[in-house]
Amino acid sequence: MSQINIRCAWANPKNPLYLAYHDKEWGVPVYDDQKLFEMLVLEGAQAGLSWETILNKRENYRRAFDGFDPELVACYDEAKIASLLTDAGIVRNRRKINAAVANARVFLAIQAEAGSFSDWIWAWVGGKPIRGNWKSISDVPVSTELSDTISKELKKRGMSFVGSTIIYSWMQAVGLVNDHTSDCFRSC
């Protein structure tokens, strides 16, 4: 078996979107604020659902949420929220949609305070990804002290759907943490 065929056990080999996500995105450091916001919204939308469900709806989310431009999302009014609640291409959950709007406002406040959301979030890890060295998927934590701390800070600032487990998953998604298992070709 070639080394590229060895992936983390969670990567569904039957879904090309999932394989591409595993192979090219998950664990790769993201410094672009709009991409960081996109993944924050998607991770919040995933709460209680599978990541594969959200990944399959990602393009619909990009369309529905104006390319995840936080300045646009922060201005959504009740009419826009009502429209999103009728969009079958996304998860039609009022609390998650309201959270995306409120979180965009907090996101922009952090940008204004720190110069960029990227600078603010990467400071939590000293500017370098944390590398897990896990032998199997069962070894990978679902949260850490750091995700607990970041979650509390974001909640204190007014964000929701940012519990410690969601934040840790987001940290993995945007490369603050690289938790590819040691046998995976993406582990290094």
Written overview of the protein:
This protein has 188 residues and is mainly alpha-helical. It has a single domain (29-178), classed as Orthogonal Bundle (Endonuclease III, domain 1), CATH 1.10.340. The protein is 52% helix and 2% strand. It is built from 9 helices and 2 strands, in the order αααααααβααβ. The chain has helices at residues 16-24, 33-46, 51-64, 70-73, 78-84, 94-114, 117-123, 145-156, 164-173, and strands at residues 130-131, 177-178. Strands 1-2 form a two-stranded parallel sheet. α2 (33-46) packs antiparallel against α6, α2 crosses α9 (164-173) and α8 (145-156) packs across α9 (164-173). The longest helix has 21 residues, at 94-114. The radius of gyration is 16 Å and the shape is globular. The two termini are 18 Å apart.
